[in-house]
Amino acid sequence: MKIDRLIGIITILLKNDKVTAPFLAEKFEVSRRTINRDIEDICKAGIPIITTQGYNGGISIAEGYKIDKTVLTSEELQSILIGLRSLESISDSSYINQIADKFSNKNTVISNNGNILIDLSSHYKISLTQKIEVIKTAINEEHLITFRYFYDKGEVDKIIEPYLLVFRWASWYVFGYCIEREDFRLFKLNRITNLLCMQQFFNKRDVPQEKLEFDRFFSNEIILVALFEEKVKYRLIEEYGIDSFTYIEDNRLMFKMGFSNKDNLINWVKSFGDSVQVIEPKEICLELKKNAENILKMYKEHDI
Description:
3 domains; five-stranded antiparallel β-sheet; alpha+beta; Arc Repressor Mutant, subunit A; SH3 type barrels; 9 helices
């Protein structure tokens, strides 16, 4: 992608006093003519580039424009590098390393072997990385995207104007304007298939600030009260923290938490088998009971 190459050229120029066009052409595997056009684009963006001809000539950024990396402490630089490495786990782009190089010079050295590893790709690294790259391209070039989306009511084909990639609640989402619904929506990437970047362009809309308050998509309207066996305590701690439950007399765990989606709540409770008893809401109790009766009936019909 051209934007990746432009970022890469800028980071190299920030790190070095002067480089040559042949060096950049070889580095990015493009022609010198392409590099010359890239330099023109960088100048148009407001970054002062100076080119000199002849012996000891080359390309450089005007004195006084470069970032003084000494204003950052080693701890701050290390935190930046950790963030860049975490992005590398869900990106096929090569410019992550080039950006990281910007924060290393003769006076400041950051080890690439840090003691913190963040992998944002979860269990779906290959498909997730591909989706993220397609969406990034669509956002940068202002193209519509189309995909099939799976949710609790079935599946549907969508066309949206993509605006943001969002990582929240341990998952990746694309935030955009849904053409069918005529409103801004949040779509979970793991529920998306058949993703395509369309040829059709869109004009960016002004996004109201309230639409960016993503917690509204996950309002905790359903309050679950349940008793759990102590043997599943590790799951409650892992998923909701040590303060999500209290002990009662028979050594069971009293759990109370808000949920936003009834189907997700029911599936989560069912994953505990007979190690949980739902107290409230009654509607959930009745659905779990009906589901258990249907399962029992199915096995009886098969003489099991």
